Amino acid sequence: MDIFGIKGLLICALIFIPFEHLFAERPQKILRNGLGVDLIYMLFNGLVIKAVVVLIAANTLEAAAMLVPQSVTHAIGGQPIWLQVAEIIVITDIGVYWAHRAFHEIPALWKFHAVHHGIEELDWLGAFHSHPVDSIITKAISLTPIFFLGFSEASIAVFSVIYFWHTLLVHSNLRIPFGPLKWLIASPQFHRWHHANQREAYDKNFAGQLPFLDVVFGTYNATGNKVPEKYGVDDPVPSSYFGQIGYPLLRRRKRSNRVVPESKG
Ligand SMILES: [Zn+2]
Ligand SMILES: [Zn+2]
């Protein structure tokens, strides 16, 4: 049984590696720095996160059965699938937006999220590079309402596939012009500016899939066609997998440059 999702990894690699080679935003080697650590994230975190999502679903469905009237869950789960998927994307992305913003603004949470921002060479595989505490809290906040409200299994399955590929796409090193769609659908350009280690990019572009949420909540970074000078963080995030897992839990003297109040704006 392919519990680590090796088959999925190979399919993603076969699609993204050639495209990133042909349409690269920045010159970057396939065997880039941090590739081995990102592979470990992909294999182990994927497993932990799947288990946690199953737990969230089971508990929420049980609570919903007691608290939400069946007329409500039936009405929601009975809508056309495309409409349910659109609603799920909006609801989950509002959750992603605020969870993500909290991870930036609350110093104790930032240490977990700094691990994701530690990526210095960004490509599709960087999508998996998150501390498990970061991924689990974000999933719990964004997915609980979906299970609670009674969206159908089929629409949740379609959403999961869209979300998975979209997350890989926004982390990819691809140059794809989105035109006016850039306000509606998060592009690699939108998310790479979230990863830029440049002051004007700090605490901007929090949405996962819907950039207009950043416009609504006042955190959109309009960057035009510029490419970030560098990615990463100034925090002393270790380079090894276990170093990164332990990093938020260890006391350190150096404070993050990103959580001082003047970084806002
Ligand atoms: Zn972030
Ligand atoms: Zn990211």
UniProtKB/TrEMBL annotation:
Lineage, uppermost ranks: Bacteria, Pseudomonadati, Pseudomonadota, Alphaproteobacteria, Hyphomicrobiales
- Annotated Fatty acid hydroxylase domain residues: 88-219
Q: Which domain of life is it from?
A: Bacteria
Q: Where in the cell is it found?
A: Membrane
Q: What is this protein called?
A: Sterol desaturase family protein
Keywords of the record, alphabetical order, are:
Membrane, Transmembrane, Transmembrane helix
- Span-the-membrane segments of this chain are 40-61, 146-165
Q: Name one Pfam family in it.
A: FA_hydroxylase
